[in-house]
Amino acid sequence: MNDRVFSYYGINKDSPEWRDWKWQYENRITTASELSKIITLNEQEMQDISSCLKGFRMAITPYFASLIDPDDRVCPIKMQAVPSINETHIHPWENRDPLNEESASPVPNVVHRYPDRVLFLVTRQCATYCRHCIRKRHVGEEDFVISEEEKNNAIKYISETKQIRDVLISGGDPLTMSDNALEDIISKLRAIDHVDIIRIGTRIPVTMPMRITPGLLAMLRRYHPIWINTHFNHPRELAPDAVAACESIVDAGIPLGNQSVLLRNINDDADTMKELLLKLVKARIRPYYIYQCDLCEGIGHFRTKVETGIEILKSLNGYISGLAVPKFVIDAPGGGGKIPINPDYVVSLDDEKIVMLNYLGDAYAYPQP
Ligand SMILES: *Cc1c(COP(=O)(O)O)cnc(C)c1O
Ligand code: SF4
Fold first, then answer.
1. Whose CA is nearest to atom 3 of ligand 2?
2. What's this model's pTM, rounded to 2 decimal places?
3. Does ligand 1 have an atom closer than 6 angstroms to the CB of 164?
């Protein structure tokens, strides 16, 4: 807990302001000089931050800032929220739109890549901007509000496309919107017969858990089945407020999943990942995906070798509850979609039998029928 945050704002953890998500949102830290009041920064770091902000804005909620260790240069929370000069190093294989979402977009703000489900991008705002964000090409344009016309066109596409049975509301972060704005979208989707489930992708439980209010949950539960996927990357993010927010989501009957990104020097070792996954399950959050970091411009310093993810998965399979083990996927550059990458347990497979290794590396055979 970073107490400098509380003295900077002149409040404490029990102040009504602190518990008010609108206060958290309005008081986000957006400049290097504000940040320097809260964490230790030298002159060079302040300059670096300012030059990065031209590329992708910074915003950190006071709550998320309070999780930063103010004197740790490589604090895992800091590295996700505070710009590094590495962001200005753009490699030739990197791209603004690494997953080719624009070309899979039949109408603005909808990405339709898989047969039965779509992404519906409803906002470009987030409570805290992740330095590893892969939608930087539009995320952070805070004056963008989806127009009535764009919203209706997207909903019209979904209602006319009968094979869509799953709509994933994403952005930006949909939970930065007001309950009413969100309800307008969700109720229109719920009125479409062939839409079975509505999913919300949000990092709010991690970066601004006070947004998960009883009012929001009461609204959401009127439109079940609703699922939420969130985005914890490090065990330290599972602070008491975040855990309480997640538990209240699950108590509202909303299954909660988690998508992590493998990030170099943040969570790319088996012990950190194991601790994260076990804490998630304990908070009733189901680990869903671990993503290999995408080839988005300016996030190359977060990338790990593919073998790292495979080795981490090997250290999980069999050792901890299957419930705590997510799929490891690479979202294929150019728009191929998510491809699961698994450790290889098969030694041989022919008409007679399969020979395979268990998690300890011992060989077993299973005869073919
Ligand atoms: C990730 C993603 C989805 C959802 O995929 P699931 O594997 O069902 O979670 C849908 N559409 C697009 C474009 C995506 O990138
Ligand atoms: S919350 Fe999601 S969309 Fe927003 S900055 Fe982070 S990764 Fe990007």
1. 172
2. 0.97
3. no
